[in-house]
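Researcher: Final request for today, and then I'll write up notes for the group meeting. The sequence and the SMILES for magnesium ion follow.
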Amino acid sequence: MTSIASRPATAPRPGSQAPAPSGGASALLDGFVVARRNMIKVRRVPELLFGTLISPIMFIVLFRYVFGGAIGGLPPGVSYAEFLIPGIFVQTVVFGATITGSGLAEDMQKGIIDRFRSLPMSRMAVLIGRTTSDLLTNVLVVIIMSVTGLLVGWRINSSFLEAVAGFALLLLFAYAISWVMALVGLLMRSPEAFQQISFLVIFPLTFVGNIFVPSDTLPNVVRIVAEWNPVSTLASSAREFFGNTGGLQPSGSFPVENPVLYTLLWVVILLAVFVPLSTRQFARTTSR
Amino acid sequence: MALNTSDADAAVVARGVVKRYGDVEALAGVDLTVPTGTVLALLGPNGAGKTTMVKVLTTLITPDAGEVRVAGVDVLAEPQEVRRRIGVSGQYAAVDEYLTGFENLDMIGRLYHLGRRRAKERARELLEVFRLTDAADRPSKTYSGGMRRRLDLAGAIVAAPPVLFLDEPTTGLDPRSRLDMWDLLRDLVREGTTLLLTTQYLEEADTLADDIVVIDHGRAIAHGTADQLKSQVGGDRVEVEVADHAQVGAARAVLARAAGGEVGDDGGRRLTVPVAGGATAMVEIVRALDDAGVQLLDVGLRRPTLDDVFLTLTGASS
Ligand SMILES: Nc1ncnc2c1ncn2[C@@H]1O[C@H](COP(=O)(O)OP(=O)(O)OP(=O)(O)O)[C@@H](O)[C@H]1O
Ligand SMILES: [Mg+2]
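Model: Predicted protein-magnesium ion complex:
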């Protein structure tokens, strides 16, 4: 074995080391290093991405072609494909955000989080890196979903800027959900446990809403819950931005009339609550 | 207990460290000191608290009580400053299996803020030192257990930290890799690195460590150099095997006279006697036996091993 002592010049001592970047810069720089590491995994294990993509495509095909004709209450002039696809986008990006939790739980189980925690990197970097790479994955997912949507009859009937705003809001909301999932993942300590808990949250969240059917077709109590569900307002916002509402101005409760504002409010609240909570949990947690 | 001034220049100082998990007291008030540039081995049976101690020292867990300084920095007050000065390899290799060996080390270098170019150079260098160059660009998922262990250890010294913590560094390595690892660790120590390691292999503690702390049930139950610990369980003994059963009595008399200690036997032709003078005493005994006409089959100087120390100490405390 080559002796390490034979190259003393190559052994930097802390004094000779580059000064540590300041807090904020370090969080971003280190976060970038972690994000790149996560993207390498996406590249090496494409099955994972394939898994995230296959279920929404299945949903599109199932709902569009199996139930499509049977779903009523659509705004006049709006096809079911036009109504459904923005909803599927929402469901897909919210599901996509759960990778944040399972990724962290897996890293914790494998002791990689302990390795990170012993390094002089920013305390937020792992979470910033994780949520950023999951955002990038979601960008990829949205692109593929859009193409699939266009193939089955979905159309964007709005301006380019509105469409961009629609995609941006979808990704922003998913990013906020990522931070919620980060906390859950750090508390779970095994990807399997995380999977089960996150399904318990995500399924009701995405099904008690207007993703698959307009909420005014729902029974009363369920309808109220569905209307105030930010996932519904995100879907309504997306339909508005993509011009899939048939030009109809909805009226009713606050979230129904102001879906974009209401959704943004949720994004702000989720980030304000879960960024600090997740960061604190990260600093505390150790594997096993 | 407060940290006193004589500890000020030690690389690692821990006083009264307590860590509880529910009812389990994983650490029940451990003190230890590692002078700069020396090697301390933490010995103890399974569940003794070795890993917990390493995690406290490396900022991974916060103790319920106690004071800890590493490289002159208070671990509880300034953990981030401590992290800049230490390298850590945990009991279980924490390599990212989806990344290649190179990518793993490069990432760690970047996170130590070595800079992009330096991180890459250092990664290549360490892959060579740890004989992983051939596998450098393969995902570490495809590595054998020993290769992963080596990659993990390489990760610990990426920033050439002045203080290194290794939790069972050679567990799972084959004999050749273990010897290589020992050489490497000796080199690092010669360059000035302070090393704290835990180990199940007493031979490892014996060859590498300047100082040994034996812990059991979260307490340090013994402390000293390997030789001090060995003499604690008894010094050297001379052991002879008499050829003829009829001469055992005569041999016993000679041994008692020559060595002065109490002569033990195994009920057969094997006799032992404690001696003070090591090899010289053995030669004298052999000469006296020869003069007395006692025929020997076998003769030897037996020193207590660290195994004797370990079994005696941990047996007594439980
Ligand atoms: N996270 C934890 N939760 C509960 N108990 C724990 C935890 N970590 C350690 N312990 C307990 O603390 C004690 C010391 O554990 P530790 O891992 O430090 O032992 P060790 O000396 O490293 O053992 P080994 O040689 O098996 O690695 C054990 O009784 C263990 O069960
Ligand atoms: Mg251990």
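Model: Chain A has twelve helices and no strands. Chain A has one domain: 22-69+76-284.
Researcher: Thanks, that's everything.
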